Amino acid sequence: MIRVAVAGALGRMGSEVIRAVSLADDMELVAAVDVPQAVEKAPSGVAYLISSDLKHAVEQAKPEVLVDFTVADAACANAITALGQGVRPVIGTTGMSADQLGEIEAKAKGVGAFIAPNFAIGAVLMGYFAKIGARYFDSAEIIELHHDQKIDAPSGTAFKMAQDMARERGKAFATNVPEKEAVPGGRGAEWEGLRLHSVRLPGLVAHHEVIFGAQGQILTLRHDSTDRASFMPGVLIAIREVMKLDKLVVGLDNLLSLS
Ligand code: NAD
Q1: Per residue in 73-104, pLDDT tens?
Q2: Is the minimum distance from the CB of 9 to ligand 1 under 6 angstroms?
């Protein structure tokens, strides 16, 4: 049985992780951590420890893995605390800076840690197909669409896809640069010639589209997460696989034997 703690346990993703881990035959949920205001409203009578103090929760419940769906600054601090106590973090929180990732990477040596901007297996496959497309098309744009409570933009998935596509290609994409921009930002954000567009609306969950264009043809890849349950098979895979790691690994594609 893998002993699992969840940070951000009372949030949208965290509560889904609590459900998924509780149903997994090879895992035991031992602690749920959230901010004090949230913990005050936590359910009573459950078999696991609920706390607003991660260090205390780790000492008491002795998890082997900490799943984190919080906010970027908290996720980094939580990972450093967990790694300091020999607990492997599995992080789904998006929006961490390169410095924060570097800090986690340094601390994860000899322990193991895993970060994925997207745990939906369909989205990971889309990223894989997008890398193939990047070899053959000179122009591409990414549109990501999320619920209106999302605090970072572009999404971690869209940004990682853009980075992977540019790396695969080895040079920047060709892009139309407007001669006139009536409204600043009208062409979206730009990464290595890839244009990134973020849509935020109530009713959406998490949706990504990569559009490749060439003379006389368009190739569109699209993935829709319509329910947060879509992320759970990937989270469970990561919990099992992080137990075998001794350094930081980023991206679910690296755990799925895609080649
Ligand atoms: P949410 O606001 O519903 O939940 C976040 C929770 O974290 C809240 O309960 C909040 O109180 C708690 N929290 C904040 N600071 C904390 C701390 N220091 N310690 C413990 N808990 C703390 O947000 P959400 O929709 O569940 O998303 C959480 C994160 O997961 C976001 O960064 C989002 O982009 C990301 N996300 C990733 C994936 C993926 O597949 N990787 C999928 C969906 C969402």
Answers
A1: 999 999 999 999 999 999 999 999 999 999 99
A2: no
